[in-house]
């Protein structure tokens, strides 16, 4: 009896000891976890307050114009006063105001001029009497070429030809009065082809004409005017000395979902159309190409009904994809990829899939172009809340280095006008790499080591 009692007492003591030890361990763990979470939330709250000063510390100070580029500029939409109501309707309960995105999409909206200023009051370019505002960009206004015509290079990209030190801007050239059904909205213009513009300063653009024209008669051809040609991008292959164009090719109902390839001996064409295909056997819609420092080029395209981005290297001649492919941003429904590189880190800006309606952009970063890619958050700074949540009423298309300023780039975007795609506008803004990222890694509590991507709104700005 006494032996059993002693044994029971010992077991009780050991159990109590283990219980106390576990309590202490979990208390300590809980304390550090709470402290860590508090630290993270504190950092998160302070990021937006610190971002401007942190970016100024990261950006090189030997470029004084950069200080002006990172200045936060607010934008006030001057809405017209409410329309007068009749005595009968004034007694009724007032309706909710129409969302600004719907106003943007409505071609008969009374505030449409705020989104698409007219050519009489809001055009800029080398043929306009700009006075002291020569060489300034005016995002959302009508941009004229050297002949005084609106630039037609929508959804495009820039090629810097090192041999001639000339920039070439390729994009969808839209013209003519014909409209038809389109997946992004009520109507679109039949394709004319890919237009090309050349410039030495990224502001004065000469029209080099249509470098890849639409097919007028053969309805079975990929480039027949009733089909879809979008987002053309051109890269140069040093080994073959050829200029290679990749583009999104589709039919009127967006069921073909392919990429097209064309080739030329000259940056100003004419380009010879080669073929179309579904890369890696998957559907492909919004796409871009990226040429890395080592000469390897990559195709990045929205696939699997726009739910996933696919990334894969091209063959050495840039005329096809290799069998290698990675699925990234799975289930995130991103499109309009614009990819660039800074200090061995790859960055990308993408948009949601909301048709013609502008939406909130996201910035992403990766140590390898093949991923994994992490979210950095909304890159838009300035303007107003509506501007920031709609990427300044535009959609990303390309990013190019800002000449002579490390860590600074030009963000190229399109402000689509679904009622008249020829009148879609260009939104070029300064993009700066610097400051802490404002969104933690997806699968941990830590913040990424790479820097934040910031796109600053300016109603007008110029290059350094």
TrEMBL record:
Gene3D superfamilies: Glycosyl hydrolase domain, family 43. Residues 76-95 are annotated as: Disordered. Pfam families: Glyco_hydro_43 (PF04616). One of its GO terms (biological process) is carbohydrate metabolic process. It comes from the Eukaryota. Residues 81-95 have a biased composition (Basic residues). This is Glycosyl hydrolase family protein 43. It comes from Cardamine amara subsp. amara.
